[in-house]
Amino acid sequence: MSDETHDKGLSRRELLKRAGVGAAAVGVGGGAAPYAFAGPHRYRHKQLKGDLSIIQWIHFVPDYDTWFDKTWVTQWGQKNDVQVTVDHIANTQLPARAAAEVAAQSGHDIFGFLAPPAAYEDQVINHAPVVQEIQRKVGKMGDLALKSTYNPKTKKYFGVSDNYVPDPVVWRHDLWNGVGETPSTWDHVRRAAPKLKAAGHPIGIGQSSGDLDSNMALMAFMMCFGSFIQNEKNQLTLNSKNTVEALKFMADIYKTGESDEIFGWNPASNNQFLYAGRGSLILNAISATRTPEDLNLPFVNDLWIYPIPKGPHGRIGLEHVMGVYSIWKFAKNKEAAQKFLADLCINYKQATTASKLYNFPSFPGAYPLKQIYKAAAADTHKPRGKYTVLTTIAAKYTHNVGYPGYSNAAIDEMFNKYLIPVMFSDVSQGKKTAEQSMRDTNAQMKQIWAKWKAQGKI
What we know:
The chain has 458 residues and is α/β, with parallel strands linked by helices.
């Protein structure tokens, strides 16, 4: 990575200007307090100083962490006279760790979330200056990122999204071909499920509390049936006949085509289910295909990816994970943190490449979809060109959690309490009727929405 690449980032004068008065130029954001630069430099002509600490997940594509830690962080730190340390923890540990740092009002300068952390809005800086600098260099952020990092009620950016991850269906073409089906619609999935299970290869869509994949897959599934948690005005809309239909439909898929293990899955379970040769279909990011490629598993050429199956309401999906970095108000090196995030997003083509096309840039101008398509087409894994569909999924079928509204604080709390997987599992396991499960979940959500509305966040 050359110095010229990093020179695309914030200069000291630019950052000070935007942190103080320049933020007003951001179309939908406010400003953040300016931060002072002072102290000796280890390297000549460097802008920043001191230590910068970051915490984020252990990426499912190991090559990404290797690039991030050993290439990007090392070279950025040397250029900017900053000693950067990165801690990696399991994705399941992120929510508890964030809560602990907030409770202590001490921790890392930058916290890397895998879902929009809107509930922490009062604990973080306004990231508008960083957003403005990135947009000045590579153009506007995508609507997906905007709705995942910005609160239109308070006009504050509670984070900066560097990436999102398209969420395809990963399926065994050989097994589905054997029963004469493809997962093009949810009706096809339901029809194929008992045949696949009878052949020893059940479907794998989790209904587990504590499992990020279950959260994402089930919320996307609901939208295909016209069931939305909220509307574009962030008003609760779960209570509908479409939600009841979706609950009954998924319960039927479970009873005829899945096994009880889906109720206790963690974020690695559906991958392992596929790798073991048992699974015939999962909803997951392409780590589910990249790892079998690295391991050269015998069925690797039969792992195909599709957009989410079409339902009665159409084909509507969510991102698999939404990368959002937030800088705490109690961070010790806010100025370096802001520049780090701006430079990372501006140069995100390198990150997408290092992740083997897992991470897509939240600012599309950093690596346009047409270029990503060319990179995917050049991938030599079979079937040739299998990854090109990711750009279609990204462009047409990837939405934010809380769509068609924003990823607000109520959505954040609902998401981290896993209310949707519990709603589905209660029906599938016969603990409640679809109608009762929906009513109970809706009642819980009403309390959450009322709380955050009272606090002025929605």
